[in-house]
Amino acid sequence: MKKHFSFLFRSAFLKSAFSVLFTALLFAVPCGAQERNLPEPSLEAAFTPQDSPSALGGEAVIRAALDFSLCPRSGSAYEATLSAYRALEREMAARGFKTMPEAERAEQVLVLMYENALKRYSLNQSRLDELFSSHTYNCVSASVLYAALATAVGLKVRGNVTKDHAFCTVYVRTGGGEQKIDVETTNPNGFNPGTRKPLETNGQGTAYLLVPKKYYAGRVEVSLSLLVSSVGRNLVSAFNERDDYEHAVPLAVARFPYALTASEQAAVRADFDTVSSNYALFLDSRNQSEAAAFWLESVYARYGKSDYLSETYDVVSHNAAAALLNARDYAGCAAFLENHRMHMSRNTAAALDNALFLSAADSELHALSESSPDMALSRIRELRLDARAFEPAAKKRLDEFCEYCWHQKIQLLTDAADYLSAARLADEGLTEVPQSRTLQALKKQSLHNHAVGIHNRFAGLANKGRYEEALSVIEQGLKENPGNATLKNDLATIRRVLAQ
In sequence order, which residues have a C-beta less than 8 Å from that of residue 411 and are 6 or more positions away? Predict the structure, then answer.
């Protein structure tokens, strides 16, 4: 099953979990599902940056956010958003924001946003075109707008992310150097959260607002460009939930240039791997496991392997091979392994090799052991020269077939009452499967039946007084079956009779 994104950058008040849910068992193939033919996702980026991701500011932030919102650059919504944003920049200029002390300037940017653009919080509303058209926002879209406006008036802004939330930090110059101040963009009073702020109460006493800092546990400061790309990340997450990989994968790729540090690059690659893996598992669940393997190989060719994708590759290649084995297409399975083993883990490749060997041998020997036990035994001896025959499951199965073939051969002799030959044949079989209780029991029963036959002949002769002939019969019987107690007792008896 696919891995789900947590909506990392949504709200300070929401927590969501993600987990890895897929698994596979040997010879387990994906359950069938209603087919839905989807175009294979492109591994090209949904767009190329218009501005350098390492030097975003002001309107360039909005342009990048609109690209991540998948708002067409040639569309009316794109121009309307830029026009509305430019109006906010003009308003800041008219109010003389750049002349204010930096801390005051940073706070007034937040005030301006709520006066002119932000009206209603909506959990999943990360798109910048939607923010301006409907005045709805979440923590990502609000933080991106704040970052754009703050940088436009000369402030140094960074993004911050937690497991479920995004917000901003401004670095303002003071007489003593530089001060770091957080900005909770989902709250009009969110400047410097954690400090008490008086509210208007219309003469009903003093009330205070406090945005608790506990909402920021596990915070990680990120570049402005990665914050902007979070718009795309939330859209990728939504597409992923709908199995819309045609849009999810290229948008995940588009985030790569916006990751400026090694840790950011690792985080963006992890998100790309998640959605790429989920597309492979989507194909796998629709009985297209080999297509899933080819898809992941195309990802490897373009962006290289990762441990996470390799785990998924083992799952889908395992299921592709299992489907071929279940269909008894052993040649097809061998060809699949030959073509794809280079991308499998050593353990998975070895397990599939062993499964192919065992399954093909089982099918071949099942038919041979019924029609020609001797041919089956000859084939078993050939198969035992293969290193895979020493694996416990294969060894056990070959022993079972070997035992069965010897049983078939012995049974023909016992049916013909040739018990001594049957016992000798059981001995021969025990050289190949020495621990076989079945062959040991057949040998014991055959020797017993042989002894019963000798005893009956002996008794018949002795009862007729033909003692010398009876002695000869019993001596020959003991040569053939020397350990039999009944025959030993018969020999002692005839010797006493002859001695009288």
Answer: none
